[in-house]
Automatic annotation (TrEMBL):
<dbReference type="InterPro" id="IPR045038">
    <property type="entry name" value="AIG2-like"/>
</dbReference>
<feature type="domain" description="Gamma-glutamylcyclotransferase AIG2-like">
    <location>
        <begin position="66"/>
        <end position="174"/>
    </location>
</feature>
<dbReference type="GO" id="GO:0016740">
    <property type="term" value="F:transferase activity"/>
</dbReference>
<dbReference type="InterPro" id="IPR009288">
    <property type="entry name" value="AIG2-like_dom"/>
</dbReference>
<dbReference type="InterPro" id="IPR013024">
    <property type="entry name" value="GGCT-like"/>
</dbReference>
<dbReference type="Pfam" id="PF06094">
    <property type="entry name" value="GGACT"/>
</dbReference>
<keyword id="KW-0808">Transferase</keyword>
<protein>
    <recommendedName>
        <fullName>Putative gamma-glutamylcyclotransferase</fullName>
    </recommendedName>
</protein>
<dbReference type="InterPro" id="IPR036568">
    <property type="entry name" value="GGCT-like_sf"/>
</dbReference>
Length: 194
């Protein structure tokens, strides 16, 4: 088994906010709190740490949902990466914020106040192999964490999200329309060649 750790912190007069999601943590590995918290949060009080265990990906095919909020929102990008069409729905994820990143055309998302939200796409019925491909695409700049979100039909499902790790690179809001109009084609060409 591997585990994901959600760390919730508060500062004076601040609503509790999840500030880190650490995944995966191998069984039997000692992890200190200082290893989990970003340096910029040293002035915050840790309220609680929630560890959630989930099974490692197995050779058998499992079905996964992935919430995409950046380049992976576009069906053509997903199909190019995975090699097959995927089914998705436009959804809103509460309690997270999406940011432009320094020196990058793609965004990063981080846990935020409960009033924050991100418009995105939930891709459904992805296989273990699809998830491995997405993990490789996102690389070590992101942590894969699990969130709950509501589908258009009203059902609540669990989905993976790729959380940005380096909060020092976060800028303002990321503009989806600007990316689609000005950077998507080049982004696809670059990643198609890699």
């Amino acid at each position: 088994m591997i585990a994901s750790a959600s760390i919730v912190c508060i500062g004076t007069g601040v609503e509790p906010v999840q500030v880190a999601c650490v995944s995966p943590i191998d069984d039997g590995v000692a992890v200190s709190l200082s290893d989990l918290l970003p340096d910029s949060l040293s002035d915050f009080l840790v309220v609680f740490i929630e560890f959630v265990q989930y099974p490692e990906l197995s050779p058998t095919v499992m079905s996964h949902n992935v919430f995409a909020y950046g380049s992976l929102m576009f069906p053509g990008v997903m199909q190019d990466l995975l090699g097959h069409p995927v089914q998705g729905h436009a959804v809103t994820l509460a309690g997270w914020s999406r940011h432009a990143l320094s020196f990058r055309v793609y965004p990063g998302a981080v846990p935020a106040m409960s009033t924050s939200q991100i418009e995105g796409v939930v891709w459904q019925d992805l296989s273990d192999e699809d998830l491995r491909i997405l993990d490789g695409f996102e690389g070590d700049e992101y942590l894969r964490c699990q969130v709950s979100l509501e589908l258009p039909a009203g059902d609540t499902v669990k989905a993976w999200i790729y959380q940005w790790k380096d909060i020092s690179l976060l800028l303002g809001n990321w503009d989806v329309q600007r990316f689609a109009a000005n950077e998507l084609e080049t982004f696809v060409d670059v990643h198609r060649g890699s």
